[in-house]
């Protein structure tokens, strides 16, 4: 999968250094995949939450952080829509977050 944009992850782990290694791990694993369905994501990341509109929420570092993505299964892209702490996540609507390059 091609991930857009890694810079979002880097910017986040500068603020939360404890998230760096778990996010790097997620990035490496995800980059190696060629997902065609949400079930394939669940096979790799069993605790991922599948939402409508190709949205997937990943729990990072034991659920300390949440990563909201949109997956384009046809062109094999994962768009990072939002990342934040679990507390911040509780204050947003994951279905309404949009990609902002």
Give a nutshell description of this structure.
With 101 residues, the chain is of the alpha+beta class. It is 33% helix and 28% strand. Helix 1 runs antiparallel to helix 2 (20-31).
Which structural traits does this protein have?
single chain; 101 residues; alpha+beta; YaeB-like fold; five-stranded mixed beta sheet; globular
Protein topology:
Layout: E1 2-4, H1 6-15, H2 20-31, H3 38-44, E2 49-50, E3 55-60, E4 65-72, E5 77-85, H4 86-89
Parallel strand pairs: 1-5
Antiparallel strand pairs: 2-3, 3-4, 4-5
Helix pairs in contact: 1-2
General description of the model:
33% of the residues lie in helices and 28% in strands. It is built from four helices and five strands. A five-stranded mixed sheet has the order 1-5-4-3-2. The chain has helices at residues 6-15, 20-31, 38-44, 86-89, and strands at residues 2-4, 49-50, 55-60, 65-72, 77-85. Helix 1 packs antiparallel against helix 2.
CATH class: Alpha Beta
Broad structural category: alpha+beta
Unreliable stretches? none
Number of helices: 4
How much helicity do the residues have? 25-40%
Tally of DSSP β-strands: 5
User: What's the CATH topology label?
Assistant: YaeB-like fold
Oligomer: single chain
The value of Rg in angstroms is 12 Å
- How far the N terminus sits from the C terminus, by CA atoms, comes to 18 Å
Query: In the CATH classification, which architecture applies?
Result: 2-Layer Sandwich
């Amino acid at each position: 999968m091609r991930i857009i944009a890694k810079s979002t992850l880097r910017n986040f782990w500068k603020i939360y250094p404890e998230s760096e290694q778990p996010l790097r791990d997620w990035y490496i694993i995800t980059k190696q995949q060629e997902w065609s369905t949400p079930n394939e994501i669940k096979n790799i990341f069993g605790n991922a939450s599948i939402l409508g509109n190709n949205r997937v929420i990943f729990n990072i570092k034991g659920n300390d952080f949440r990563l909201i993505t949109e997956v384009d299964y046809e062109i094999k892209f994962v768009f990072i829509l939002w990342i934040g702490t679990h507390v911040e996540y509780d204050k947003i609507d994951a279905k309404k977050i949009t990609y902002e390059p």
